[in-house]
Amino acid sequence: MKNTFAGLIHPIVSWLGLPAVVLAVGLAGCQKKTPPGTPAAPSTAAPAPAPAAAEPQVDKVLAIVNGTKVMESQVQQRIDVRYKAVLAKLAQQSPQMAAQQEHMLRQRIPNDLIIEVLLNEQARQAGIEVTPEQFQAEMVKQLAAQNPPLTVEQWQKSLEEQGMDFQAWKEYNLRGMKYEKLIEAKLGAAPAVTDADAQKYYDENLQQFQTPEQMRASHILISTTPTDPSADPNQVKAQAKQKAEEVLKKVKDGGDFAALAKENSSCPSSAQGGDLGLFPRGQMVKPFEDAAFAMKVGEVSDLVETEFGYHIIKVTEHHDPNQVSFEQAKPQIVEQLSQQKRAEAIRAYLESLRQSAKIVFPPGSSAAPEPSPMPMPIPAPADANAKQ
Fold it and tell me: Which of 18, 63, 198, 283 could bridge 279 with an S-S bond, Cβ 3.0-4.6 Å?
């Protein structure tokens, strides 16, 4: 089950431009500890003075939007409820990256809050609201449509395991639903994409819809890398070659390639029976690539030596280079162009709200307009040879 729920992360929320916080997954970083044997402070030392009472923090005004203040405390609150947990985990591995991400958030969130003030004004004037009951019903509906279906309790647990505040998530996305209703009322349906629009994009971006020659192969790798630093590399290599020849003989005698790969290969692909999936030229080391692309489907190679060791390769698929047809690419082109047109219309609407609003930035405020993101390119279908 994926730990994202795209159906309830409303698109209008993403137009506000919040940057993603990168969360590296792995071992927690080591914390510095007092080295063993460090002498304790002498018992005769004067007691430390009681800490002075902390002075209250002065909340700064970052912007005044049509008379409504956007405060620094609101930025901190959003970081605390939405990003504090992931920033803390990131800091365990890379304090520098965590600091960079937090700096980006502190620069970007004030602008998001300004847009939210303007959207809230427009929604209030239009009488548009989303009740908690309406949001709950939509959440239940979309969770039930997941594969496998999820309950609200399961989704809440999933979010909380990622360090997210479930109540804050609900409130954030409830506002997203309200903004969606507002945009729908103001802009109407998504702009239509004609066949001519799609054909024009296809003709002007043919390179995006080309697939190179691809090969699918499995392999068994007998590594020549010594596990013992004091071992004789020549002896290790000779032993690896002997073992590789023995495994190759078993393959040639009709042995099950996948089973032999799981038993003998030192490549992580051994868990998949040696399967490397589809790959084009230029992705594998040259001796491996030259051997694989010279073989026919079903053929097994002799030993192929690379810097990693001795490989036994079995080719399982071959796809000729080809151009994805317009008819194959059309659905993705239409969908992406529609999304781009919608995004452009929303950005123009949000910019019109900013231009017509009275926004005052105090000196030194971090809230400043930012350029709209560039549209993403349209990906081609993975393989034009696939049956339609």
Answer: 283
User: What six digits make up the tokens of 64?
Assistant: 């005044």
Query: By three-state DSSP, how is residue 215 classified?
Result: strand
Q: Within a 10 A sphere around the Cβ of 313, how many other Cβ atoms?
A: 24
Examine the domain organization and report whether 72 and 189 are in the same domain. yes
* Phi, psi dihedral angles at 145 (to 5 degrees): -85, -5
> What confidence tens digit (pLDDT) does each residue in 199-212 have?
999 999 998 898 89
Task: From 71, 17, 7, select the one nearest 343 (Cα to Cα).
Answer: 17
The length of the chain, given as a count of residues: 388
Give me 41's structure tokens.
């402070």
What is the rounded radius of gyration, in angstroms, for the C-alpha atoms of the chain?
29
- Residue 173's domain spans which residues? 7-18+59-210+324-388
Give the number of domains in the chain: 2
Give the pLDDT confidence of 286-309 residue by residue, as tens digits: 999 999 999 999 999 999 999 999
Closest CA to 341 of 370, 368, 378, 382: 378
pTM for the structure as a whole: 0.57
The position carrying tokens 């980006």 is 104
**For tokens 């690379």, what's the residue?**
306
